[in-house]
Specification:
five-stranded mixed sheet, single chain
């Protein structure tokens, strides 16, 4: 089985290494995500997840998903962590409108954002081309890993990659014009979606709010440049991939400050020869101490990124090409 570098809880590090058996959901547990759409703008609803790790209790309901009810039908942004979530999302949408879902967008390829695709049979599911390639490559291992973390909540879930590759640009859905932004940094392909009718910007996991950013596929320097672009994108409401939506720049700036600290800590440690265990033991700065999972995600970032920074630090300087000797 292919194991991908995407981990949300420390237990998985142990489970994957030692081959622990899958832990089922607690006996008698009601497998109900309790999805309650919150209206945040005209025709726009969010399903806001918890600022937690995957657990047997929450079933992976840690992600923000959303939908827009246009005059032509419903557009869904991300489908959650499981087949069951997708099914319950559809039921939640049906309580708001009787219009059909006409399009699904996946912002990126991490499993908490797209494993609900399976429930949207017959609906066109779109993503950036590189996102689709990553879903195809990593989807099976993602599903296995998420099942280990959340048990029966994930039962019956199969990776269902998007089939419609899209590029940056504007698409009209009835009375809503959506602008697709092709970005990267959190992963190799991150889509943000701006609704020009309402000013709502769905930022996916390019932005976290009051929850430490995850970095298994991150290139931090690229991510920082993308945050600069998002900060210069006019919006009325920003929906992060995790955490509460905001009407200002605070979530972008918080994500940037956290990533700058991670980047600086990695560079300092690899330059000074500090070992990974020593780096993980560093105290969390006071400005991030109140952010959910700061210590856990920093430890995981060290596991994900330390060797890459180490390689960059000790990258040999190329020798100059000798000039030809005149004869």
């Amino acid at each position: 089985m292919k194991i991908v570098r995407w981990l949300h809880i420390p237990f998985v590090l142990v489970a994957l290494c030692l081959g622990f058996a899958t832990i089922p959901a607690a006996q008698g547990q009601e497998l109900d995500y309790g999805l309650k759409p919150q209206k945040v703008a005209e025709n726009t609803w969010l399903l806001i997840g918890r600022n937690e790790d995957f657990t047997l209790k929450n079933g992976g309901n840690i992600v923000n998903t959303g939908f827009i009810v246009t005059s032509a039908g419903v557009v869904v942004i991300d489908t959650g962590p499981s087949r069951l979530y997708g099914e319950q999302m559809l039921r939640a949408i049906a309580k708001i409108t009787d219009k059909p879902v006409i399009k699904v967008f996946n912002t990126h390829h991490h499993p908490d954002h797209y494993l609900g695709n399976q429930s949207f049979a017959g609906v066109k599911i779109a993503a950036l081309a590189e996102t689709i390639r990553e879903q195809i490559s990593d989807g099976g291992a993602f599903t296995d890993n998420v099942y280990r973390m959340s048990g029966d909540w994930i039962k019956g879930t199969e990776s269902t990659p998007a089939k419609e590759p899209v590029q940056a640009g504007r698409q009209q859905f009835g009375d809503h014009e959506l602008e697709l932004l092709s970005l990267h940094g959190h992963t190799s392909a991150d889509m943000a979606i701006l609704d020009h009718r309402t000013g709502v910007l769905f930022a996916g996991d390019l932005v976290f709010h009051d929850r430490a950013a995850t970095t298994p596929h991150a290139v931090i320097q690229h991510w920082l440049a993308t945050l600069d672009r998002l900060e210069n994108t006019p919006f009325q409401l920003l929906v992060p991939g995790h955490g509460a939506p905001v009407t200002d720049q605070r979530a972008i700036r918080q994500t940037r400050d956290y990533l700058l600290w991670v980047d600086r800590a990695m560079r300092e440690a690899t330059t000074s020869g500090e070992e990974m265990a020593e780096l993980i033991a560093r105290p969390i700065p006071a400005e991030f101490a109140g952010i959910a999972l700061a210590a856990e995600e920093f430890a995981r970032s060290v596991a994900h990124l330390y060797r890459r920074y180490e390689a960059e630090t000790f990258k040999p300087t190329p020798k100059p090409t000798p000039k030809p000797t005149a004869r």
